[in-house]
């Protein structure tokens, strides 16, 4: 596995502080193989690895894990981001806020799952899922190539109780699209889904047909449906559609199969469009929001390593908290401690776990955020930097004259120095309170 291979690469590196370029390059050769095995297209894998190499070089290796594990975590995080964001990132929604009917056009190769996905989305919209009201949906098949393709959609429509456009034999795709649009307008449908014909391969005739339909129907969404098992070929398909039709998103089908999900990364890289859904089976409710984290895990095949690293990062925060707790037990909190806390706030984007646990810190965070965030942190650090060692250990020494000197030395104002001192006083006061409550352990026990 990738884990074993990376282990080999990094065995000789144990105990070193930061990842060097040579370390990272060695690891990235293995990562590249893993990406290709997951069916990420070669040029996409190459570009991705180059980008990650830049980010990873120089990063510190957390204690209790190996550099190889650290690299896996970096790669994983970058994958999640490229795939559209992690937990909490809004699932890409369908853009239906246009004057009705909102047209959703499905495009893709033959057999990719367009017709099935059309019915799946129609079922959701008409059933009032996707966090909105029930929509009145009309489906129309523009597939005049495959015998019975229009009947296939009509049958699905009956199953899910969604209307389909009556079939008129011999009509061409653009004319069917026109008729569907008119019917949807006249009969007050909210959404019109256009299921188009595919080909076995991308060709000029198919693209011309897609362009003509898009021109007539002016779709709010054009979704490219791609079989996740397509693998290396996915890039060519995506590139062709993306170049010639204004796509708004991608649906990956057959994610229930044994595909490792590399096509997802290729799709994102080539189209730049969000992956809006994942098809996870033949049944008409087998459609899910796309989970970037899950798919990243599948591509790397290293979910266990990723959570190991996350736990290691958490335990370092706990160590920091314990060091702090020891000081608190004595009721101490000087400028050096404040400086360490400010630095941590900055590293964690103002939301450190430790900071959240200390009553005074919460207030300090809010004050910092209210005053403009990072810039204030930089100023505060400069002010503490302009203090003498004595002043840092014993801030009570700082009188009016010293305040002027500190303000000058740090390029700030006496007012700002006063604010910093006030913040310190409040936090030192909170520390004393914590001591009375029985220290950090007592406080945590109280918080449950
Ligand atoms: P089209 O030619 O693009 O319209 O493809 P179809 O919608 O007709 O689908 C082709 C085949 O793929 C059908 O047998 C579907 O049941 C199957 N299919 C579509 N989506 C999925 C999926 O997410 N998972 C699985 N396992 N099968 C799917
Ligand atoms: Mg079809």
TrEMBL record:
**What does this protein's UniProt record list under function?**
Involved in targeting and insertion of nascent membrane proteins into the cytoplasmic membrane. Binds to the hydrophobic signal sequence of the ribosome-nascent chain (RNC) as it emerges from the ribosomes. The SRP-RNC complex is then targeted to the cytoplasmic membrane where it interacts with the SRP receptor FtsY. Interaction with FtsY leads to the transfer of the RNC complex to the Sec translocase for insertion into the membrane, the hydrolysis of GTP by both Ffh and FtsY, and the dissociation of the SRP-FtsY complex into the individual components.
- Regarding domains, what does the record say? Composed of three domains: the N-terminal N domain, which is responsible for interactions with the ribosome, the central G domain, which binds GTP, and the C-terminal M domain, which binds the RNA and the signal sequence of the RNC.
Keyword DNA-binding in record: no
Q: What class of enzyme is it?
A: hydrolase
Among CDD domains, the record links this protein to:
SRP_G
**For this UniProt entry, which residues form the secretion signal?**
none
Q: Does the keyword Nucleotide-binding apply?
A: yes
The membrane-topology field of this record reads: Peripheral membrane protein
| Principal place of residence | membrane
Coiled-coil segments: none
Domain named SRP54-type proteins GTP-binding is located at 274-287
- Could you give the subunit structure recorded for this chain? Part of the signal recognition particle protein translocation system, which is composed of SRP and FtsY. SRP is a ribonucleoprotein composed of Ffh and a 4.5S RNA molecule.
Family named by the database record: Belongs to the GTP-binding SRP family. SRP54 subfamily.
GO biological processes? SRP-dependent cotranslational protein targeting to membrane
Alphabetized Pfam families for the sequence: SRP54 (PF00448), SRP54_N (PF02881), SRP_SPB (PF02978)
The cross-references to Gene3D superfamilies, in alphabetical order and at most eight, read: P-loop containing nucleotide triphosphate hydrolases (3.40.50.300), Signal recognition particle SRP54, nucleotide-binding domain (1.20.120.140), Signal recognition particle, SRP54 subunit, M-domain (1.10.260.30)
Write out the entry's keywords from A to Z.
Cytoplasm, GTP-binding, Hydrolase, Nucleotide-binding, Ribonucleoprotein, RNA-binding, Signal recognition particle
The enzyme's E.C. designation: 3.6.5.4
UniProt catalytic activity:
GTP + H2O = GDP + phosphate + H(+)
What protein name is recorded for this chain? Signal recognition particle protein
Q: An example Gene Ontology cellular component term from the record?
A: plasma membrane
Q: Which GO terms describe its molecular function?
A: 7S RNA binding; GTP binding; GTPase activity
């Amino acid at each position: 596995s990738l884990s074993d291979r990376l282990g080999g690469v990094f065995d000789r590196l144990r105990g070193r502080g930061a990842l060097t370029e040579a370390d990272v390059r060695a690891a990235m050769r293995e990562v590249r193989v893993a990406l290709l095995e997951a069916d990420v297209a070669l040029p996409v894998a190459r570009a991705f690895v180059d980008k990650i190499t830049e980010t990873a070089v120089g990063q510190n290796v957390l204690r209790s894990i190996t550099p190889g594990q650290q690299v896996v975590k970096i790669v994983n995080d970058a994958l999640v981001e490229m795939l559209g964001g992690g937990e909490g990132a809004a699932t890409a929604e369908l853009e239906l806020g246009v004057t009705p009917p909102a047209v959703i056009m499905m495009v893709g190769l033959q057999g990719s799952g367009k017709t099935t996905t059309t019915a799946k989305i129609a079922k959701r919209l008409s059933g009032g899922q996707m966090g909105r009201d029930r929509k009145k949906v009309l489906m129309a098949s523009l597939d005049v190539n495959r015998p019975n393709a229009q009947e296939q959609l009509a049958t699905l429509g009956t199953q899910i109780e969604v209307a389909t456009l009556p079939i008129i034999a011999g009509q061409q795709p653009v004319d069917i699209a026109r008729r569907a649009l008119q019917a949807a307008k006249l009969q007050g449908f909210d959404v019109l889904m256009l299921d188009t014909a595919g080909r076995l391969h991308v060709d000029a005739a198919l693209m011309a047909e897609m362009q003509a339909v898009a021109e007539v129907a002016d779709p709010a969404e054009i979704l490219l449906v791609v079989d996740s098992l397509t693998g290396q070929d996915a890039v060519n398909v995506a590139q062709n559609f993306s170049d010639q039709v204004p796509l708004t998103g991608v649906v990956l089908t057959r994610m229930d199969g044994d595909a490792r999900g590399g096509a997802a990364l290729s799709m994102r890289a080539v189209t730049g469009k969000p992956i809006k859904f994942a098809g996870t089976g033949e049944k008409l409710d087998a459609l899910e929001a796309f989970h970037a984290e899950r798919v990243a895990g599948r591509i790397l095949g290293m979910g266990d390593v990723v959570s190991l690293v996350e736990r290691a990062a958490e335990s370092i925060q706990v160590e920091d908290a314990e060091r702090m707790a020891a000081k608190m037990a004595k009721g101490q909190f000087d400028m050096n401690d404040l400086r360490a806390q400010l630095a941590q706030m900055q590293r964690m984007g103002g939301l450190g776990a430790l900071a959240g646990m200390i009553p005074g810190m919460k207030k300090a965070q809010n004050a910092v955020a209210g005053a403009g965030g990072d810039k204030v942190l930089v100023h505060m650090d400069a002010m503490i930097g302009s203090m003498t060692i004595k002043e840092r250990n014993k801030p009570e020494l700082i009188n009016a004259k010293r305040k002027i000197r500190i303000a000058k030395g740090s390029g700030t104002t006496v007012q700002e120095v006063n604010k910093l001192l006030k913040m310190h006083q409040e936090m030192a006061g909170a520390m004393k309170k914590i001591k009375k409550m029985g220290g950090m352990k007592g406080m945590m026990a109280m918080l449950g």
